[in-house]
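My main concern about presentation is that the manuscript never shows what a single data entry looks like. Each protein is reduced to its one-letter sequence and a matching series of backbone shape codes. For the editor and my fellow referees, an illustration may be useful. For illustration, here is how one protein appears when written out as sequence plus structure tokens:
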Amino acid sequence: MSFYEIYKDYVWEEVRQQIEATTPSDVARSLAKSKRDIRDFIHLISPAARPFLEEMAQLSQQLTHKRFGKTIQLYTPMYLSNECHNICTYCGFSMDNKIRRKTLAPPEIKQEIQLLKSQGYDHILLVTGEANHTVHMPYFEDAIKQIRPHFSTISIEVQPLEEKDYIALAQLGVYAVLVYQETYHEAVYKRYHPKGKKSNFRYRLETADRIGQAGIHKIGLGVLLGLEDWRVDSFFTALHLDYLQKKYWKTKYAISFPRLRPAEGNVEPNFIMEDIDLLQLMFAYRIWNEDVELSISTRESEHFRNHVIGLGVTSMSAGSKTNPGGYSVDQESLAQFEICDNRSTEVIHRLIQSKGYEPVWTDWHASFANYLLQ
């Protein structure tokens, strides 16, 4: 059975009603359990859980220390291209935005590599728009061959690909693939994605299955918080994660929490997610699932990122640029969205240490895997 078939068994409004119907007693019972299921996740993201936030924070911290220790993995995105053939109403790269497009050539990639390595990075996330005729498998293969000798861990966030393509990327040393559904509300999804291959809701939804079947080490999931009700969208993300972990049990998983940020031509959020809501969601994921990695990007404010360390997060980006060549060769190409935390990598490194945590620059499992591939 595919996840789409499982997904179709649920009705959006009925899930919302279940969340709203949660009582404080339901929350207390879920917190008292040693093993939790998807129903408990519903309780932990509900409005009824808000008075339990301090208890949830303490439990989230305990479980994170137990599973991950006092470490925060550092990574940074390298944007290879802002070319895109989709219309996504919230994205600066959307095809209908009249912006200067750029795809990095090998010499420009080399300059980006040199600058990022000088900052200490060994874990890099490669990002592109979805332009199948220009930013395609041959481009990915050439770029990864150039980049791989310099980084022990390579993750990618590109357009959904076929299983055979993910197999090829794994053989080249790609460790993780991130694919965000944006929203699990199928009808709303179509309004935000009116044109391009990305408008195919089911094809995107089943991308994680193709990644899992290809044997990629780690899969990253998430929604764009602000497009729909964050509680219901997060339930479906958790349901998806639960399905994947049971089916592809050798694979590692990560959840990211991108909130809608200002970008060229984009829409205002339909659903506002406050900082306290995001904290509750992070705690809920950690309490429900001790093994999943949780990542916070530079979309979030300095204040939020300062205080979230130690409460469940396992990885953070730092010093990020969201335009191709933004670190070294092109300061003027349009960014995908506005960064909120512009502090340097060095400052974030010291911040993590000041909180009593160890900044980690690499994933040793990935390093060993890359060694075997040599």
